Amino acid sequence: QILMLDVEDALRSADMWLEYQPKVNIRDGKVLSVEALIRWQHPEFGRIPPDQWIPLAEQVGIIHSVTLWVMDQACRDFDALKVQHGDNIGVAVNISAKDLAHPLFLEEAGAIARRHGISPANVILEITETAAMADPDVARNTIRALSQMGFRIALDDFGSGHSSLGNLASFPLDELKIDRSFLTDVLLYPIRQKILKAALELGEALDLDVVVEGVEDEAIALWLQQFPGLHGQGYYWGRPERAVAAPANCR
Ligand code: G
Ligand code: G
Ligand code: MN
Ligand code: NA
After folding, report:
1. Is the CB of 38 within 6 Å of ligand 1?
2. Is there a domain that residue 250 lies in?
3. What distance in Å separates the CA atoms of residue 73 and residue 71, rounded to the nearest whole number?
4. 52 vs 58: CA distance, rounded Å
5. Helix (H, G, I), strand (E, B) or coil at 111
6. What is the pTM of this model?
7. Which pLDDT score is estimated for 54?
8. Residue 98 domain flag
9. Which of 38, 41, 64 best tests ligand 1's pocket when mutated (most atoms within 8 Å of CB)?
């Protein structure tokens, strides 16, 4: 619990910051968007990875302020991201199930983009299957509304949680992120390749931007080049890094 009070302090200090990891076109390496990932350096306990405290923040009900902070910070960094990657760069933020159920989330998400003069079309909201399925009716309504506001919607970690393919039809999706578990031993076993191909074809058939997560080495990156239009994310192309502050003379 002390740790959760620490979260709210950290959001107001330099102990919490965002790093951005590129999602690239696999054939030419061009960066299309970047995913914001939160980082916390605790003064006493050192680095605390998000999967160790985000679930707690969801439980105790402070994830809403965390998510709004992330969206606001990502919008603040947008100028720097544009200088780094070009004006069409998208910025992705991770949204939790609890956010989708919060009555003010829609309004506040819209207000943040407006306040920073950023088109929601440049903002991708990454939602996990588990979040989307937690309360499907509420999630569906919120996702629909966010989509109508112009935000782009990505289904994160696809194929990892308990999911139903049928649910793909219930949400207006723009992007499908294939969970990195699909890459395990994929170059060794033809059956794994068939399963991954089927997932990629499903995304393509639904007209979604398809992103393969967790690409760590060149062998897999080269193998993935056989799929036209496919996007990738992983240490092979870039680790999460802070946005490079735009030098004043570049603006
Ligand atoms: O950045 P990576 O280390 O390790 O992230 C681990 C997990 O934490 C991932 O599942 C990622 O989606 C999640 N995560 C990272 N940043 C955020 C964030 O800002 N909000 C939420 N809800 N989850 C995040
Ligand atoms: O669940 P989500 O996809 O939002 O989380 C992204 C997480 O995956 C972050 O923790 C990020 O640091 C991590 N990640 C990004 N690229 C790679 C990779 O190539 N390999 C592994 N193992 N993890 C990665
Ligand atoms: Mn994500
Ligand atoms: Na993911």
Report:
1. yes
2. no
3. 6
4. 11
5. helix
6. 0.96
7. 95
8. yes
9. 38
